[in-house]
Design goal:
The chain is of the alpha/beta class. Helices cover 39% and strands 17% of the residues.
Length: 128
């Protein structure tokens, strides 16, 4: 699949999903970190859109687990959160190519632009 959205706000999740599906992007979605981990291991997405405040395993823990896995540590990540993140938080939330969006200030154009930017293969990268 193209994008895995990890977001526990069901309403926001369906809005984000609709925006991406309108752009022809295949979307999977889960509400918690534990389900996200299982889904990522079962079928690696091209991009993860991640909320930080999640039940069970939060965004920080999920990124730490993914970083410790050789095959998953370079996954592109869009952190989409309502929380203020300082430099230390951002460093802990960085996976492969990583961008940050704040829910309060982001509009859907910006969200879709970042998704499309992060899904483009890096120069010289071979998509398997």
């Amino acid at each position: 699949s193209d994008v895995l959205i990890v977001e526990d706000d069901a309403e926001l999740l369906s809005v984000l999903r609709r925006q991406l599906e309108r752009d022809g992007i295949d979307v999977r979605a889960v509400a918690g970190g534990r389900e996200a981990l299982a889904m990522i291991r079962a079928a690696r997405p091209r991009l993860i859109v991640l909320d930080v405040g999640l039940p069970h395993i939060d965004g920080f823990d999920l990124v730490a687990i993914l970083r410790s896995d050789e095959t998953l540590r370079a996954l592109p990540l869009l952190v989409y959160t309502g929380r203020y993140l300082d430099g230390a938080d951002r460093a802990r939330l960085t996976l492969g190519p990583t961008r940050f969006l704040t829910k309060a200030t982001a509009d859907d154009r910006e969200f879709r632009r970042l998704v499309s930017e992060l899904m483009r293969p890096a120069h010289g990268e071979v998509l398997s």
